[in-house]
Structures are given as structure tokens and as C-alpha cells.
Amino acid sequence: MYRIDCLQFANWSEQIFTEMRDGGVDAVHVTIVYHEDFRETVAEFSKWNRWSEEFGHLILLGRTAADIDLARSTNRTAIFFGFQNPSPIEADIDLVEIVHTLGARFMQLSYNNQSLLATGCYEDDDPGITRMGKEVIREMNRVGLVVDMSHSADRSTIEAADLSERPIAVTHANPHAWHPALRNKTDEVIRAVTGNGGMMGFSLYPHHLKDKSDCTLESFCQMVYNAAETYGVEHFGLGSDLCQNQPDSIVTYMRVGRWTKGIDYGEGSAAAPGFPPQPDWFASNLDFVNIERGLGEVGFSDDDVAAVMGDNWYRFFAENFGPVS
Amino acid sequence: MYRIDCLQFANWSEQIFTEMRDGGVDAVHVTIVYHEDFRETVAEFSKWNRWSEEFGHLILLGRTAADIDLARSTNRTAIFFGFQNPSPIEADIDLVEIVHTLGARFMQLSYNNQSLLATGCYEDDDPGITRMGKEVIREMNRVGLVVDMSHSADRSTIEAADLSERPIAVTHANPHAWHPALRNKTDEVIRAVTGNGGMMGFSLYPHHLKDKSDCTLESFCQMVYNAAETYGVEHFGLGSDLCQNQPDSIVTYMRVGRWTKGIDYGEGSAAAPGFPPQPDWFASNLDFVNIERGLGEVGFSDDDVAAVMGDNWYRFFAENFGPVS
To answer: Could you give the angle at which helices A288-297 and A217-231 cross, rounded to 10 degrees?
Structure first.
């Protein structure tokens, strides 16, 4: 059984890399871009090159699913890179292959706002995938850069799932029917993503949870069980959205970037602008064991627990992180 | 009477600057960006600094309408800069003031395709001005960078005209009712732009002309007359879209940029992919005299001929090229 988290954006440190090892985490998809352009993105790759040099006994920069096995056999965690915004490719389709070569494996087509490719979930209106978006999806399919629609609007997501010749992902979100957050996904969206072979990672970010920070482990695991029953367990994994040790200035940057001179509270509010507290059963990489236990308690078989905890993401990585063989 | 052309993108040379003088052209709004990012845009400003150094006896880099008078009194043509795409500001609202300081006076919110701000006229669907677009319009209003919607889709254009607290422009297009090109503007769009105090420049680009390269001077001038009667002569000028001496590779770059690895023919076709020939009565800066004569012949008063030939643009530049005083 693999243990894979398909989204984190922590304030990376030796402490957190050590917790990944202590928590038995085999692989993590880490966000390295919220709003950065190409040159700034290169600097983010460089940061990870330095961490890899310094903490090479704890982490390994992954390129393929096989690197997860290499990481396990050497007692390390494989790190895979992703972008929450297509800003790194700017207006240049040729940068799709360049960022893949540099190690990117997931790219969201939009982040809350309209992008050159697709609409974000905070826009009033969603015209679907743009002219450039259609071209970029084809290029991402060709090189093996996974389309991630976690922060995109519904019509854009459904069109991306249909247009993409390879399965897409919603790396971090929950069903809207369980908790009606703007970022959570409607049945229609989940059906389009999973119906085209795609994957969804369940989020542990309190704004995406029923009862937010007070969400119970049982409620979360029951939600996972219901989704698996409805759409098929093979389409689900975890994408915790864990932002451990980040200062509140970071969530402001995520929301505001440089697109407004004002303030935007996103899922927060003027009264509660910062990161909400995590539920007590999931605060760090040490706590995946709680979710594994919780999934067993709501009735999943051992195989299905393994599928959700990481085996599904392993299969998805193996099939989608390079050109079609 | 001023003679002002509110859009050209020639293959600039001493020959063309000399023709501007010989043709009595007081000011030209020149496009310096189709797809360039910020750093590349800076290189375009630099090119003009060099031309200004070399050809300072023919041209003057203009910042305000008063520079047009300075240019006239020293027998030169004032050059004003514009972008046909918001790509120079990337995803950074603070770059609006930076590009204005560097001399930009017009910026299109989109060029054919969807941008971060607005929709282009070649997209299937137009959701209007985006979240970032609303913020950027406010910032453009503040510094005095004119919103140009020449290549934008209808709903985006109407929303921009309504949202902008200062008049906007369609620097180069004609009425759709005269010639139903995708780039020409419907009555509803012209009414929104002019009804909010904005300006439209009539294009001499053959794809925007009735009968294209065979368009007659009389047909063009009659169209101008009808528009002036319908919306008010004070809202119109010229924006020739003259692309003199450009190789066909340039029109391909305009259409394709780096957003597709394929080919897009835009207003052309596989059979006729290049620049179409200009009508024989408007081939260079020497030919504004023909239009001036033609406008008189369709019944405009001398004052109204002067208004269309440049006085309206002079007033618009005077009112919109800096902070509200």
C-alpha cells in the first residue's frame, strides 16, 4: 500500500520532511506556483534543487511513478511538482514542454480568476476552455503534464475533462453536496472528471470540510465512502491541501497575487482572513494513519483503503507523467 | 486642423518617417506590442528611443497632446505608443503605471483571444470583463492609459465602456453594418463606446473595408458620413491600421503569437494568408489628402472634415493621456 498526498504547500523545512518520513508518506505533489511567471518559476525549481541537495536523505525529486518505489526502498519521500496557475507558461505554448522537462507534472488551467486558458471558480461567468486553452491541453497531453482543475469553474472543468485525450485531475477538493463551498465540486463536475478516467483528491483544508475546523474524522471518511460508492473507488485519493507552518501573509498572497491593488478574502472573510486551524485529527504528515484507520471504520475493505490512501494516485502517476508509450 | 492617425504598425524606416512629414501627419499612434511580455515591451520602447535619437529631425516621442503642437512647430510628427494586447502588464496590476511612465497611452484589453482582462473577438463565447479586468480598468483610468477595445468581443467592449469612468476607444475598426467583418463593430457596440464619450477610428485595412482592396474612396467616406450622422461626428477619427512595408511573416505573427503550434489565418485564409493590398487611394502617409478631399465631397463641412482628420483625436488625447486634473 502506497501513502501519497496529491497536494501540499507547506513552509518546507527539515521538520516537515522528517514528519513525511515518520508519517510513512511515500510521495507528495507539492505546489511550487500560485502566481509566478516563467522566470520566477525557475527560481522555485531551484529552491527544490537546493533542498534536495541539503535534505537528500529525506526527499527525492520525482519524475515518474517508479521514483516512488526508489524513494521507498531508500527510506525517502518522492516530491512531485505542480502549478496552481498556468502563469509559468505565460502566453507561450512551447513552455509546456520546457516546464515538464524541468519536472512539472500537474498544472491547473486557472486559479480562481480567468486565465488565458480557462475560467476560475470566482469569476461570475464561465465561457469554457479558450482558444489557447484547447491548444495547451493538447500539448499537455502530448508531453504528460496533467491537467488539474481544482480551482476552475464548472463549465471549464467539464470541457477540459471532455477535450483532454488523457484523464485529468482535481487534485484537492471535496463534493459540493457534502459541503457547499465554492471550491468543492458538483456532481456534474465529478462525473465528468471521473467518467473520463480522471482522479479527485479529497481535501483536508477546513474551508472545504463540513463544519470546517470542527469536521469529524467520521464525517470525512463517510463522505469518501459515499463518493467511492457513487463514482467508483478507483477515482479517488487524498490531496490534503496542507499548508503547514505558513504565515497568514501567504494565504493573502494566494488570493491577491498581483491582480488587484485591493484585498480579496477568497474563502475567508474580513473577520477571519487567515489560515483556519486544521481539524485535530489531521495537522501534519504524521496523521495519515488516522485517515487510514477512519476509512477502515466506515466500511472500506483493506484493498479500498489502500486504493484511496495512495494506490490510485500511484497508478495515475504511472499512466500520465510522460508521453503515451 | 490636425492630421492624426490613431493606429499604424509599419516597418518603420527613414522613408516612412519622411512620408509622415511630406503627408502633413501631425501625430501617429503606433502599435509597439502584439504579444510581447513586459521585458520584451521594454525592448520595443528602447527601439523607439534609438529611432528618436537617429531621426529626431522627423519624429518626436509624444506624451501629451501638447507634444503634437510642439511637433508641428518644429516640423516633426509626434509618435504615441500603444499595445494591442495587455501582455506587457502580465499578471501584475502595478505594471499599468510603469508602462504609462514609459510612454504607453493605449492598451487593448484583449487581442482576438481571451486575455486575463477581457475576451477577444475570435473566441466562441464572451463572459465580459474579468475580475482582474475590472481592477485594471480602474488603474488605467487613474493613470491615464486609454482602454482600447478594437480586437475585443462585443460584450467585453460594452462592459468596458460602461465600467470605465473615462471614455474608451476603438482605435481601428469600422461599422459592422457597412462591412460585416468579425473585427468591425455592431451598432450596439458603437453606441456603448460613443455614448460613454468614447472615440472610434476608421480603419483602412482592406479586411475591414467593403469590397476589401477594391473599396472606393466614396464608399469609405459615405460610411464615415453615415456614422457621424448616427452617433455624432465628435466621436470619430482615423485609425488606418496601415502596416506599410511589412513582410507577410508579420501578419502570421500577429495572428499566431505563441499561443498555438498550429496556424491561424485570422481574417485571411489558406489561399490568401498574407497582407491584402491597400486600396490605391490609401497606400501610405502621403494619402491622407485623398481622404480629406473625399470627406468634403460626401457633404461634410470644413469643420467636420477637420474633426475627423484629427481634431477629435487631439481633444481626446488632451483629455485622457494623464491623471484627471
So the answer is: 60
Cβ–Cβ below 8 Å for B128 and A130:
no
B277 with B241: CB under 8 angstroms?
A: no
User: CA–CA distance from A174 to each of A31, A90, A293, B110 (Å)?
Assistant: 18, 29, 20, 34
DSSP annotation of B119 reads -
Q: pLDDT digit string (tens) for B109-166? A: 999 999 999 999 999 999 999 999 999 999 999 999 999 999 999 999 999 999 999 9
Amino acid present at A279? P
Q: Is A259 in CB contact (< 8 Å) with chain B?
A: yes
**A5: region left, alpha or beta (phi > 0 left; psi from -120 to 50 alpha):** beta
By Cβ distance, the residue of A92, A93, A130 closest to B123 is: A130
Q: Give phi and psi for B237, each to the nearest 5.
A: -155, -160
Whether the predicted pLDDT of B325 surpasses 80? no
Q: What is the DSSP secondary-structure string of B73-106? A: HTT-EEEEEEESSSGGGTT-TTHHHHHHHTTEEE
Determine the Cα–Cα distance for residues B79 and B66; give it in Å rounded to an integer: 12
- Whether the Cβ atoms of residue A309 and residue A292 lie closer than 8 Å to each other: yes
Mutation choice for B interface testing from A112, A131, A263 by most B CBs within 10 A: A131
Whether the CB of B130 is below 8 Å from some CB of chain A: the reply is: yes
Residues of B in contact with A126 (CB under 8 A): 127
> Which of A114, A126, A261 lies nearest to residue B116, judging by beta carbons?
A114
Strands (E), B11-132: 27-33, 59-61, 77-83, 104-108
Q: Which domains does chain A have, with CATH numbers?
A: 4-320 (3.20.20.140)
Asked if pLDDT for residue A325 goes beyond 90, the answer is no
User: From the list A37, A127, A258, which residue is nearest B127 (CB)?
Assistant: A127
Torsion angle, alpha carbons of A315, A228, A215, A9, to 10: 20
In this predicted model, what pLDDT tens digit does every residue of A45-59 receive, in sequence order? 999 999 999 999 999
Count, residues in chain A = 325
Helix (H, G, I), strand (E, B) or coil at A89: helix
Q: Do B87 and A91 touch (CB under 8 A)?
A: yes
Taking CB atoms and an 8 Å cutoff, what residues of chain B touch A131?
A: 113-114, 122-123, 259-260
CA distance linking residue B309 with residue B300, whole number of Å: 12
Do A129 and A109 touch, CB atoms closer than 8 A?
A: yes
Cell of A255: 488570493
On the CB side of B43, CA atoms within 13 Å amount to: 5
Q: C-alpha cell of B142?
A: 487613474
B86 residue type, one letter: P
Count of Cβ atoms closer than 10 Å to residue A193 Cβ: 27
Average pLDDT estimate for A303-319: 98
Residues of chain A with C-beta less than 8 angstroms from the C-beta of B114 = 114, 116, 127, 130-133
CA atoms of B249 and B247, how far apart (whole Å): 5
Return the SS3 of A126.
coil
Q: Which of B114, B125, B134, B154 to mutate to test the interface with A (most CBs of A within 10 A)?
A: B114
What confidence tens digit (pLDDT) does each residue in B78-87 have? 999 999 999 9
| Chain A residue at shortest CA distance from B95 | A258
Which chain B residues touch A93 with a CB distance below 8 Å? 258-261
Question: CA-based Rg of chain B, rounded to a whole angstrom?
Answer: 18
